[in-house]
Amino acid sequence: MSDREGPDHLTKGEIAKDAVEATAQAAATAVGEVATIITRAIGDIAGAVGGFATEVFEIRDASRRASQEHLSAVDADADGAESD
User: Fold this and answer.
1) Across residues 28-53, what is the average pLDDT?
2) Distance (Å, rounded) from C-alpha 33 to C-alpha 30?
3) What is the pLDDT of residue 77?
4) DSSP symbols for 5-37
């Protein structure tokens, strides 16, 4: 320790090491934040695509049921017309 008052006296090497360390920490933090954003976005996209697929299946099933009901109604009308 020194009896001098005032700022610490750091060598150029210590200053460079601290700068590299701070830069590495900042880079790691930024990469982590970007990875979190990307991970969340991928999850959101997967959820949206899954929801869309569910809607498509429901629309297809509803269309199939409507077609079957229509054909049943047409057959019932044809049977009723033949018996008249």
Assistant:
1) 98
2) 5
3) 76
4) -SS----HHHHHHHHHHHHHHHHHHHHHHHHHH
Best CA proximity match to 15, nearest among 4, 7, 3: 7
Q: Is the model's pLDDT at 3 over the cut of 90?
A: no
Instruction: Compute the C-alpha angle 51/53/59, nearest 5°.
Output: 105
Q: How far is CA 68 from CA 2, 54, 76, 77, 79, in A?
A: 94, 21, 12, 14, 16
Q: What is the DSSP letter of 40?
A: H
Q: Position 59: which residue type?
A: I
- State the average pLDDT for the chain: 89
Tokens of 68: 């079957």
